[in-house]
Automatic annotation (TrEMBL), chain A:
PANTHER family: ADENYLYLSULFATE REDUCTASE, BETA SUBUNIT (PTHR43687), L-ASPARTATE SEMIALDEHYDE SULFURTRANSFERASE IRON-SULFUR SUBUNIT (PTHR43687:SF6). Keywords: 4Fe-4S, Electron transport, Iron, Iron-sulfur, Metal-binding, Repeat, Transport. The keyword Transport applies. This is 4Fe-4S dicluster domain-containing protein.
Automatic annotation (TrEMBL), chain B:
SUPFAM superfamilies: ADC-like, Formate dehydrogenase/DMSO reductase, domains 1-3. Keywords: 4Fe-4S, Electron transport, Iron, Iron-sulfur, Metal-binding, Molybdenum, Nitrate assimilation, Oxidoreductase, Periplasm, Signal, Transport. Gene3D superfamilies: 2.40.40.20, 3.40.50.740, ADC-like domains, Dimethylsulfoxide Reductase, domain 2. This is nitrate reductase (cytochrome). It comes from Caldithrix abyssi. It is an enzyme of class 1 (oxidoreductase). It comes from the Bacteria. Catalytic subunit of the periplasmic nitrate reductase complex NapAB. Receives electrons from NapB and catalyzes the reduction of nitrate to nitrite. The keyword Ion transport does not apply. Residues 38-94 form the 4Fe-4S Mo/W bis-MGD-type domain. Transmembrane segments: none annotated. Its cofactor is Mo-bis(molybdopterin guanine dinucleotide); [4Fe-4S] cluster.
Length: 193, 757
């Protein structure tokens, strides 16, 4: 232990450890910490990628700047396409869906506006409420609080058939890495609600 | 044993990572990872009045983690998310680390000693030129009992002015008034233990889920286990607390007194009253005079459910249902906070809640109590018990009583004439006097009045013009802006002392790290200031926190809030003691005024004969509690055509008070990044306001541009703003009218209007 440890090294280890633990957990449920969602009115991912003309009209009209252009990973098929990162800014599912109205390519369609963006999933291993810390943040902030998500035995529980996948819970979750994630509905976007 | 660099890195990195989100939080972690690395210390949470036990984890002289104390009876290891992020407040960049004096509008760094010399010189000048009443002190329900005690002595006993107040005036004063007038002595009769034994809860004027999350968790767990437990909520706003509600009454803000009277009427009319208890333990009074039971019934005649419905807007059948729930329940517990206290008739509202318990005899029994929740960790301990208000002296004593002044002056070692027999200026009057220049110097400790006073902007003038000293752990705050001198205070974990929470429980907090920078414990700042002002003899004896506590403990001996048996030695071992604790072998008291209360037990047998309870408090006569026939009164500023909306302010779960602590945690800021105004969708539609629009909220006192949140939480005709942010200061809008009895301002109701920005 005579070898001095630099602050940088130490921090690297700390965060490295953190990331691996959280990622391990994420892999188990198949949702990355920074999972991206397709904008409202999209069909499955394959269809979306083939129809979207990348004009970014939806990006520019979104009143909450929730829709952004995916630039995280050039290897990813979604590279350059519009997506929503709920951790940065969740979707408010506007009443008039300006993003869908703005879409000329047919990638986003009004008749699909009621299709959920995904379903919220609680990561029990890092969620405060499952660790003895009372934290109803996701439940309190959910626009469908008490319907789509509620506190059961002091823990948040998602009603899958009610959740719209808007991601507000992901945005507000006060753990360092979000303990609630949206599992995107990609292939089988079924008509719900 | 040799440890390779790699291994060391791995274990300590894991430990730090785990500690940073709390022990046991990471999957697959083992506790022994922490052996010899993180040291855990038993303490008390810094935030609300619940008094949760925490374990503070330190490593290399730094606070690295906070977890729930499993042995603490209040929270049994549970914590809310605010407490979890406390280490971020301790280690925040916004900590004030040195003293500063303002010269030509700019703060200049000085030593604490220089700053105190300067303050002492200024204060002495003011005292000589304008008299002692030109000086004032404004303290806090977050200061330790020891700190408030020192301020009390310096101002009331040495400088010789009763202009010594604290922010509990803004939050608990009406509850004090309520308990004194109803039960004869301040603070609740029961404890949190009643929660698990109650069959019925009335949560009135309290968003327990967000303001007292751990108590709410206890209530929720109790209800989950016992589905027959019924919960009534009376609140103009739908809040997260509603998830446990069996019935929710939504009165128009400020019009709930009639409901409580109507409930009392139904309880009597339908035979739910405990006539035996009423006969043996209760007297009746109208606003001034003693009346009898028949007179009270006569008074209640007017309060039919229909009348109450017309006043409050709550359907009459719901009021009847609520009264029957209360009446039928085997045991009943009422919990309330600011929705009741922060009102121009806060004392009356408190009385009317306790009326229901006295009428039904649902008090003094397990699972039964009329229980006021406190908002700050030591409002009960330091300020109510410690006497940190302008009319009080330590140990539930009053400045107007000569005997009390003598007792205190003797212990303080000051001439009794020094303590003025007249109460000083209460909070609103104090800041008014600052505006007028009647008070020329003020010492503000551990609180942020420039943001937290009602109608705040009105009082900035006085803060700007007079000599202001602010002792704080954080910089900048809305108040330090107006300071002439800022003194760096040691923060929680950097000082030892006692906090007394809602349930009369006094708990000890150790010092686990050195103060940041030059920061000094507030009690010692006051001690040294006292010495520098010339009160050497009076202050030189205090060398440790225990010196102060022991002296205070002596003053409580034989009082109704007897803490004589709560020595530091004991408090260091146990998870707090609920007074009265008259001796070192006394375990503390669960229920006051009845069997098991040492003061009740010591009463002569003839007094207790045929009586389950004896209200022995200083304001009660012959052991009787009082049922009050208080008139009905609405808010000070009702809505009208010009200002058609009723504005209410309050808390969110993730932030606390003016945010100086919670806003140091980015995670909490992420959860609630800014203020907003909640508007009912029907009102929003009429005004053409959409969710997230910028709107301007106006009252007769100010206007505030803020984001709209269209949500069905406030009832139509009402709006709600959380008050934590300096940038969106809700208190620019609130009204500074106050309860004539308790002098507590009516933060909870004023008239407002909204337009699009």
């Amino acid at each position: 232990m005579s070898e001095p440890i630099s602050r940088k090294d130490f921090l690297k280890e700390v965060f490295g450890f953190f990331r691996t633990e959280v990622e391990k957990e994420s892999r188990n449920i198949g949702i990355a910490a920074d999972s991206f969602l397709l904008p409202p009115g999209a069909g499955g991912q394959d269809e979306f990628l083939q129809t979207c003309s990348q004009s970014y009209q939806c990006v520019s009209v979104c009143p909450y700047q929730a829709i952004e252009v995916f630039r995280n990973d050039p290897q990813d098929a979604r590279y350059g396409y519009p997506v929503i990162n709920p951790r940065r800014q969740a979707c408010y599912l506007c009443e008039d869906f300006p993003c869908i109205s703005a879409c000329k390519s047919g990638a986003l369609r009004m008749e699909r506006k009621t299709i959920p963006l995904g379903t919220a999933v609680v990561l029990k291993d890092i969620c405060f409420s499952y660790k003895g810390i009372y934290c109803p943040s996701c439940v309190v902030k959910c626009p469908l609080s008490g319907i789509a998500i509620s506190m059961v035995d002091n823990k948040p529980v998602v009603q899958e058939e009610e959740c719209t996948g808007c991601g507000i819970c992901v945005q507000v979750c006060p753990t360092e890495q979000p303990a609630i994630r949206i599992k995107p509905s990609t292939q089988n976007r079924m008509e719900k609600r | 044993m040799t440890v390779s660099r790699r291994e060391f890195l791995k274990t300590s990195a894991a430990a730090t990572a785990a500690a940073s989100i709390g022990v046991n939080l990471l999957p697959g972690m083992k506790n022994n990872l922490f052996a010899g690395q993180v040291e855990w210390h038993k303490s008390v949470c810094r935030y609300c009045g619940t008094g949760c036990g925490v374990m503070v984890g330190t490593k290399d002289g730094k606070v690295v983690a906070v977890k729930g104390d499993k042995e603490n009876t209040i929270n049994r290891g549970h914590l809310c998310v605010k407490a979890f992020y406390l280490p971020k407040a301790v280690n925040s960049k916004t900590r004030l680390k040195h003293a500063m004096i303002k010269k030509n509008g700019k703060f200049e760094k000085v030593t604490v000693d220089e700053a105190l010399d300067f303050v002492a010189k200024k204060f002495n000048e003011i005292r000589q030129k304008h008299g002692a009443n030109a000086l004032a002190f404004y303290g806090s329900g977050q200061a330790e009992t020891e700190e408030t005690y020192m301020a009390n002595k310096l101002w009331k006993g040495c400088i010789g002015t009763n202009n010594m107040e604290g922010n509990p005036r803004l939050c608990m004063a009406s509850a004090v008034g309520g308990y004194l007038t109803s039960l004869g002595a301040d603070e609740p009769a029961g404890t949190y233990q009643d929660i698990e034994q109650a069959k019925f809860f009335m949560l009135i004027g309290s968003n327990t889920a967000e303001a007292h999350p751990i108590l709410f968790e206890r209530i929720m767990r109790h209800k989950t286990k016992n589905p027959d437990v019924q919960i009534l909520i009376i609140d103009p706003r739908k809040t997260p607390t509603d998830q446990v509600a069996d019935l929710h009454l939504f009165p128009k803000p400020g019009y709930d007194l009639a409901i409580l009277h109507a409930m009392a009427k139904i309880i009597i009319d339908e035979g739910y009253a405990d006539e035996e208890f009423i006969k043996t333990s209760v007297i009746f009074k109208d606003n001034k005079n003693k009346i009898d039971y028949a007179g009270y019934k006569e008074f209640l005649k007017k309060y039919t459910p229909e009348y109450a419905s017309q006043r409050s807007g709550v359907p009459a059948e719901d009021i009847i249902k609520a009264a029957r729930m209360f009446g039928k329940a085997e045991t009943a517990m009422s919990l309330w906070t600011m929705g009741i206290n922060q009102r121009t008739r806060g004392v009356w509202a408190n009385n009317l809640i306790t009326n229901l318990h006295l009428l039904t005899g649902k008090i003094g029994k397990p699972g039964c109590d009329s229980f006021s929740l406190t908002g700050q960790p030591n409002a009960c301990g330091g300020v109510r018990e410690g006497g940190g208000l302008c009319h009080l002296l330590p140990g539930h004593r009053l400045v107007v009583k000569e005997k009390h002044r003598q007792q205190v002056a003797k212990v303080w070692g000051v001439p009794v004439e020094r303590i003025q027999p007249k109460p000083g200026k209460h909070t609103v009057a104090m800041f008014e006097a600052l505006n007028k220049g009647e008070i020329k110097g003020i010492y503000i400790m551990c609180t942020n009045p420039a943001q937290s006073l009602p109608n705040a902007s009105k009082y900035w003038k006085g803060l700007e013009e007079q000599f202001v000293v602010v002792a704080e752990s954080f910089f900048p705050t809305a108040t330090t802006k107006y300071a002439d001198v800022v003194l760096p205070s040691a923060f929680w974990t950097e000082k030892e002392g006692v906090y007394g929470c809602t349930e009369r429980r006094s708990q000890y907090m150790p010092k686990v790290k050195d103060p940041e920078g030059d920061a000094v414990w507030d009690a010692f700042l006051l001690r040294d200031l006292g010495k520098k002002m010339g009160f050497v003899k009076e202050f030189e004896k205090y060398q440790t926190a225990q010196d102060i506590w022991d002296e205070y403990r002596g003053l409580t001996k034989g009082q109704d809030m007897d803490l004589w048996g709560a020595t530091y030695d004991r408090l260091k071992k146990v998870r707090g003691l609920t007074w009265p604790v008259p001796s070192e072998d006394h375990p503390g008291t669960y229920k006051r005024y009845t069997d098991g209360d040492p003061i009740y037990d010591a009463l002569p047998a003839e007094k207790k004969k045929g009586r389950r309870m004896y209200f022995y408090g200083p304001k009660a006569k012959d052991g009787y509690a009082t049922i009050w026939a208080r008139p009905d009164k609405g808010p000070e500023e009702p809505t009208d055509a010009e200002y058609p909306l009723a504005l209410s302010t309050g808390r969110v779960m993730e932030h606390w008070h003016t945010g100086t602590m919670t806003m140091t945690a980015p995670e909490l800021n992420r959860a609630v990044p800014k203020a907003y105004v909640e508007i009912n969708p029907s009102d929003a539609k009429k005004m053409g306001i959409n969710n997230k629009d910028q709107v301007v909220v106006e009252t007769r006192r100010g206007s505030l541009e803020i984001e709209a949140r269209v949500i069905d939480r406030p009832i139509p005709g009402t709006i709600f703003i959380p008050w934590h942010w300096e940038k969106w200061m809700a208190n620019i809008l609130t009204i500074d009218a106050f309860d004539p009895g308790s002098k507590e301002p009516e933060y909870k109701v004023c008239a407002a209007r909204i337009k699009k920005a």
